Amino acid sequence: MNQKAINIILAAGIAVALFLQLRPGAAAPSSSASPAAPHAVKLGYVDLDSVQENYLLYKEKMDLFEKKKEDADRNLNAAFQKIENERIAFAKRGESITQAEFENFQRSYQTKMQNLEEQKRVLEGQIAEEGENTLNELRSTINEFLKEYNTTKGYTYIFSYSASLSMLFYKDSATNITDEVVAGLNASYNKSKKGK
Predict the structure, then answer these.
(1) Domain count, the chain
(2) pLDDT tens digits, one per residue of 124-147
(3) CA 31 to chain centre
(4) Domain span including residue 45
């Protein structure tokens, strides 16, 4: 099961639990102890699309990641082109090529192409892993910030929202804390940059 499916299932479970907890007339958990005072639930959400557009660290990390991808593509394309140029130069010799030369070139060409394909697979794997590590690092940074942020704000739940993966059926813009979160993330990031 991929991560997107897991996130959807978790979000649906949370939504059902919240609905059951917050609906009018929801039964309080049975207990022989006296009932606790009702706890006011305070909800907020962060628009991930806005975070991607405005969070400086996110933009910096993604720019570096894209540059690495482009460099890898450029290097691989140059290597493929070099092998292709060798093939074209060899073919231009035409009828002067002996059978033995042709067979040797064919073996060498196939070996080079296989090596390059393997190098491409390894690079793609490394880039995918680095991309996942970058996103995990960013998620961790945001989560840590939200823990600190929420010590003074008192939200019971802070959801994430994205137009491409929406788990919220309705959102009241009054509960949108994205601007505050992005401003705080950027301030924290700028402060950490100055400390280096």
Answers:
(1) 1
(2) 999 899 989 988 999 899 999 999
(3) 44
(4) 3-24+40-194
